[in-house]
Write a structure and sequence with these properties.
The chain is mostly helical. It has a domain at 97-308. Helices cover 61% and strands 4% of the residues. It is built from ten helices and four strands, in the order H-E-E-E-H-H-H-H-H-H-H-H-E-H. It has helices at 8-12, 92-122, 124-132, 134-153, 155-158, 163-184, 188-211, 220-244, 248-274, 286-308, and strands at 32-35, 38-41, 83-84, 280-281. Helix 2 (92-122) packs parallel to helix 10. The longest helix is centred in the middle third of the chain and has 31 residues, at 92-122. It is globular, with a radius of gyration of 40 Å.
């Protein structure tokens, strides 16, 4: 009797399964991988890394902007504001083009004003007519005020070509007539001295405003208070003049305060145009920038002329 147990298949009634067919011979290839006995091609090779990786260069720009680089209050053309609290020129070329345009317009305005003042001083028939027809002076001053308020308050006029240049031209001609009329009552030497002092003062203030770390655009409260002081001093001078006649001391005090005020205005407007401060003009406000600088310079000239000039 055989002690070996019967096969598993014969006991359970199952037939023994046929053996698996042999795998077809495949040539040995190191790039072929076998999964479950069937050949599959090898996966793609990874891209090689550079031997010496380098840092991004200066021209590299990150695809996502830094949220800190866009401060609150950034300029929006739809807002209608001439300046913003923290807007920045992102491109230096845009800022330089804006500054160049502002000072080219300012130069043209000052040349027109110098021409009209020279005409009123040197052409005696014109000088005589201007001094005898004061009504045209008041018309010119009213035109100056209307165009100034329009350009400052109406951004659709200030930003649209050619209406902005037409309004600026009318403003410049009207204010040049006002300055020329005032200059016609002084002798030529006094006017030339006032022009020289004004040029030196404006150049010095502009260079100081550009180079200094003092942010004049933060001094709006101080400038506002000083403006009120100058206004009240002017009213006091008018009352004293009507009651007791001209007072030289009051005139000098008022002229000194007014010159200080417009010097601060010039520093404030210069920093607004140059940018990099708390407040700055947007690149679309070249008319506004030229308008304010021109007003500061010409008013400084008239104040200095009233202080150092002598009547003709």
């Amino acid at each position: 009797m055989d002690d070996k147990p019967p096969p598993y298949g014969s006991v359970m009634g199952y037939q023994q399964a046929a053996p698996y067919p042999p795998v077809h011979p495949v040539q040995s290839d190191p790039t072929v991988q076998f999964v479950g006995g069937a050949p599959y091609p090898a996966g793609p090779a990874a891209a090689p890394y550079p031997a010496n990786p380098t840092m991004p260069g200066a021209a590299y720009s990150h695809p996502y902007p830094d949220p800190q680089s866009q401060p609150y209050g950034e300029y929006s053309a739809s807002a209608g504001n001439a300046f913003t609290s923290s807007a920045r020129f992102s491109d230096k070329s845009v800022r330089h083009a804006f500054i160049r345009k502002v000072y080219l317009i300012l130069t043209a305005q000052l040349l027109v004003t110098c021409g009209i003042v020279s005409l009123f001083l040197l052409a005696h028939p014109v000088k005589y007519w201007v001094q005898r027809n004061s009504w045209f002076y008041y018309i010119s001053y009213a035109t100056f005020l209307v165009t100034y308020i329009t350009l400052v308050c109406c951004d659709n006029v200030r930003r649209r070509f050619p209406g902005n240049f037409i309004a600026l031209s009318v403003f410049t001609l009207a204010f040049s007539y006002v300055a020329g009329t005032i200059a016609s009552f002084h002798n030529t030497d006094s006017v030339l001295i006032a022009v020289g002092i004004t040029a030196a003062v404006c150049l010095g203030i502009s260079l100081f405003a550009i180079q200094t770390r003092i942010d004049f655009t933060k001094c709006t409260a101080l400038i506002f208070v000083l403006s009120l002081v100058v206004l009240l001093t002017g009213l006091a001078c008018m009352i004293v003049y009507m009651v007791s006649g001209p007072n030289k001391i009051l005139h000098v005090v008022y002229g000194g305060l007014a010159a200080l005020l417009f010097g601060l205005y010039l520093a404030f407007d210069t920093q607004m145009i140059m940018g990099g401060r708390k407040h700055e003009l947007s690149p679309e406000e070249y008319i506004y920038g030229a308008l304010q600088l021109y007003l500061d310079v010409v008013y400084l000239f008239m104040i200095i002329l009233s202080l150092v000039g002598s009547k003709d």
